Amino acid sequence: xxxxxxxxxxxxxxxxxxxxxxxxxxxxxxxxxxxxxxxxxxxxxxxxxxxxxxxxxxxxxxxxxxxxxxxxxxxxxxxxxxxxxxxxxxxxxxxxxxxxxxxxxxxxxxxxxxxxxxxxxxxxxxxxxxxxxxxxxxxxxxxxxxxxxxxxxxxxxxxxxxxxxxxxxxxxxxxxxxxx
Length: 180
Known about the structure:
The protein has helices at 7-14, 17-48, 54-66, 77-87, 103-114, 120-129, and strands at 72-74, 90-91, 134-138, 142-143, 148-149, 161-167, 170-175.
């Protein structure tokens, strides 16, 4: 029985070992690159998706109609910019970074001790540290300076926070002056 030559057999005689190695390396790079596309798309998604949603624009309209200007909100960076620019509110983050005192500490506290708090009391205490009267909590990833994260589920504790707005993906909580 005659052996049917394979493609590799026919190419290996025609191609030098150097060319074969180059082709194998190119295939390896293509395979590795293709396998990283999904991970890259996933890590870039928060930056490529809208950083403020239509539900949040509606929430900003509610804020402007129901709260006094310069009310301080605990927010992520982009949410704070929306409230400052469109509703004349103040945020714990955003604005003129050159004049924000202790901006690195502030970003860390807002990221990890309000929106990443281990419990309601930690979020409440930290919100008070920065004179926040309200907390802006979208049900999506937010960016407070270090990483994109979904806010911790610590705000539905009436001892420390009162929900005043809940529409679409946005909830707004009033920070209790004293623990109830």
